[in-house]
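Model it.
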Amino acid sequence: MAILRNIIFICLVSTALSKSLCKDERDKEDLEQYIVNKIPQINYRFRPHYHVAPPVGWMNDPNGFSYYKGEFHLFYQFYPYDSVWGPMHWGHVSSPDLVHWKQLPTALIPDEEQCFSGSAVQDGDTMVLMYTAHIVSESEPFYNESQYLAFSDDGVDFHKYRGNPVLPSAPNGSPDFRDPKVWRHGDHWYVILGSKTDDQRGRVLLYRSTDLRKWEFLTVLAESEGDMGYMWECPDFFELNGKFILLMSPQGLAPQGDRYKNTYQNGYIIGSFDYETFEFVQEVPFQEIDFGHDFYAAQTTEVNGKRYLISWFSMWEVPHPEDVDGWAGMMTIARELELVDDKIIMKPVEEMESLRENTVIVEVLEFFEEIDFGQAVEINVEADFSKMVEINLEGKDGGGKVSLRWDPEIGMVTVYRGPDDFRRVEWEPNGSKSWRIFLDSSSIELFCGIGDVVFSSRVYPLGGWRLTNLSTQDIDVLAYPLKKGFPV
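Modeled.
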């Protein structure tokens, strides 16, 4: 009888699991059909040509930025059913070169949990996702966050681990316990998570594991002393040019002059780290990594000795003019990172040059002279930066506009969208004679000099771009219209 009961139990469990898997597959098929049906309703006036964006609906943080079986993979926070934030899924794209992207089926859909941010690693031939399960409750604190796993043998079709959660709670019980970033060193897997102290100070927690399923808490890697916000989101930890970088997105930083003017910030601390003691020693205080209006939750990956970064090209609690068009949010272009003189340098990946059309536009613009471009263009501006440089960029048919200013008397670059809507920072040209500007249908990315100062801001022009030289000198313009790198 005992054997018969065991057989019946196994059969019942097997049947229940089969039904669960079938339901999951049906839900995914229904979602993909919904997306296919919804795409024709999208208004393309602000859709990017070469930035990753959701096929429909809402996008925020990049997730699972990784390399698997010869391709880069990028996942993202995704709500397909409206162009506002909602129950989180994981959208998914892949690329051979970080420039030409392919839309893939939605990787994760929520069950009882919302699928918040996380990361991806390769374990043997398996791609493993580790993500935060955000579960809403009816009693305080009204939500709980724990860490789940999902697996795939092909990097496309994912199944959630039946033993979830693998990390059920923070050491101090804080409900804010999210955004795992996993990596391997030696014989162990490591993961860091964003969290907070009982007295509302942001912190990053460090764990390790031998199998990705059972985790040991090691230490608090770093935390605010009271001046660095109440929550540290989306942490990343990596080595760059012999130093260790803690990249994170602190919430609750008060504005300080021209610094910290976005809703939330994104930046990094430089230090040293010992895998024997698990101690991270800060050597250079927190610095913003991008100085534009719209940059958050950056995530990195390393392939063939190069460290790459992609960020959410938007910001919380600000208007998203594209939301009435059936979509909202996109990603920055991929950047390669270097560490130079205690500062991260960001450069567009070299493969961006493969998007250049054969047509090359070369002009010398005098004061108040203008030139028109399409919606997607790379512009290299050469000028004498011992003098003032000012460029105005606006829609040929109206809409949004922005000006880029360099004032050598105060040594600052400004990206100006309006009297109360500008970002500026100190810059030392150090002999640099050029700016590199990437314009898309609703965005601008400005790389000053070697990429030691970068601005990423959303701007919404209509009918392509018009550039006007407002400088006190002639400027040389070398421009390349850019081909599409993103399919929808």
